[in-house]
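Recap from last week: sequence in, structure out.
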Amino acid sequence: MVIVDYYARLDGPEPLTGLDLVEPDVGFLLALPGNEVSGSGREELRAYLEGRPAVGRKHTVVRQSADGDLEMVYGYITEGDGRGTGSFTSVALLSADKKLLRYQSFFHAGFNIFPLPAGAAA
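Predicted structure tokens:
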């Protein structure tokens, strides 16, 4: 799945290679606690990614589904110290070239469908 590959790249040694999987005119919404980041275009998404603090976070996808050009994932985030900080649900509409055309992600620290990893913050 493209969205799973996107997260793997974001978490890898060269996070900006995730942008290779994004259309130049991508539309996105990232709903974070107390903040929403939205925009259009690969460069706006790049600016967001470059502005994130370097904490060694990791996206772990625990469920995934695809129906034609729509992909959906559910997972949790861990920080560099292994603490789970919350869960996310993300949806992507793919272009004909199998790149992210529309992308939205919702992160919540307090409500999780599945338990966070052992020893993680609830």
